[in-house]
Amino acid sequence: MIEEVKSVDVSLGTALEAFRRAYSVAQDPQERMLLDWHLANLEYANASLMSNLSMAYWDQDDPYEMGGDHCFIPGGNETFVRSLSEGLPIFYERTVQSIRYGSDGVLVYANGQEFRGDMVLCTVPLGVLKKGSIEFVPELPQRKKGAIQSLGFGLLNKVAILFPYNFWGGDIDTFGHLTEDPSMRGEFFLFYSYSSVSGGPLLVALVAGDAAIKFELMSPVESVNRVLEILRGIFNPKGIAVPDPIQAVCTRWGKDAFAYGSYSYVAVGSSGDDYDILAESIGDGRVFFAGEATNKQYPATMHGALLSGMREAANILREAKRRSNEVDSSNSLLRVRFGGKYLDVGCLSLCLYGLISRNQAIKLSEEEGEENRMRMLNQEFGVRLVGRKGLSGAGESLITNIRSAKSNLEDGGIQR
């Protein structure tokens, strides 16, 4: 059913414009500006142009939306990051170029350094995966590459400006700005006041849609001047002077080599299933993926990214336990050679065999003295030593594998 819908999917922008024309909606210029503001707000929520959004699935996460009010975090999101990263070894200025994975583990190459592990969690933004900045060896499965290509990764930019005083009103949390140009409807269309949580008179202006793309072609000075022009157009007619800012910061997420965008959206021809595919581990539980673009229920959100990390932590722990159980349950072949005082017969030596677990083999190797090892075998492990003919099929299989490995080594090494 989903594949059928994908084949006839169109953009949300196309559908809404057809509806607007069919029912003569927003014919008045004032109504049109108001409609454009709401469309800009949709483009902000999805970090993309309306023309890119899937009409069928753009809001597929709505049923999972959390209730309650939106809120600001005093001190910013960095408060969470610092708390969660406390005590963790973090290597800065190490840009990952390659992730190589196989049955023997994972190798991560970054700035000429090699990091080895049993498993790896990849949390880079979808934009980085789309760009192909990281080489995966072997290549990512076609199913995952398809999801990376199908999902959209959009753009939202912000300008944060610190003023000498609050001129917009202490009780105002947000206010908007309308424009007559539909192509620039997302240009600083919404302002957030952070005065109550930042400790100072701080305004954040949002740039969405097509305006967010054009914004990255402007210099920071031009961007801030444009914000001030809009603010003065709003407040000067009310007799309120807008002062020059003390400090300003402009984002450029589209040009950021560690992001190449802001957050994901469901593009035309895509669906929520692509989020699930992106979340799948690869390499028989060697490489795991987390991030907002792997969370079908809460994409494009900070809490979605956080929850995906918790999900993958549980998956990694489950996989580690599975591998540990496999090691514990796998058998090692023990050969005990008897000679000298241990034999009353005329032969020089006698070899007996037994099957023990890997953990038992490790514990046995740590025990000192032959008599102590024999006591551990018999009394603690309950292992019965037998002749070659008394071995089970598992024992014979181990002997065959050992001989094969020795033969390969004698022929010049194991071939991969």
From TrEMBL:
One of its GO terms (biological process) is methylation. Gene3D superfamilies: 3.90.660.10, FAD/NAD(P)-binding domain. Keywords: Methyltransferase, Transferase. One of its GO terms (molecular function) is oxidoreductase activity. It holds the Pfam family Amino_oxidase. One of its GO terms (cellular component) is nucleus. The keyword Nucleotide-binding does not apply. Belongs to the flavin monoamine oxidase family. This is Lysine-specific histone demethylase 1 homolog 1.
